[in-house]
Write a structure and sequence with these properties.
Length: 118
């Protein structure tokens, strides 16, 4: 194992990666699990594994969720006060857009493996 690879693996383990008990089926090397992805410390590119961060994806998603929820509230309040019908229409459209974002995000949470609707 070269120095660079060893360093990456040490890093992954420090960041919550796990060494698995079963060996790699290709080379019998040590398997590392990081963020739910299993990679061989010997024959896979562990550098790629380090780049993947599901934790941060979840983080972005929940932040986006919060942002959109907040926006929906803002638009709803504005819509309540609005008396100009044209502006109401704009606000309603905006509201629908935000709601569809939320809907899409919650759909992805529930069934990741179903096919995309078009
Ligand atoms: Zn391997």
């Amino acid at each position: 194992m070269d120095k660079e690879r060893r360093k990456t693996i040490t890093n992954l383990l420090r960041k919550g990666g796990k060494m698995l008990a079963e060996p790699c089926y290709k080379c019998s090397g040590v398997l590392i699990e990081y963020n739910g992805i299993i990679s061989c410390s010997n024959c896979d590119d562990v550098k790629d594994l380090e780049k993947v961060s599901i934790t941060s994806l979840i983080d972005i998603k929940s932040r986006l969720n919060n942002l959109v929820s907040r926006k929906i509230e803002e638009v709803a309040v504005a819509l309540e006060k609005e008396s100009d019908i044209r502006k109401e229409e704009e606000l309603s459209e905006l509201l629908l857009k935000y709601l569809s974002i939320l809907e899409k995000m919650s759909k992805n949470d529930k069934n990741n493996d179903t096919k995309e609707e078009s």
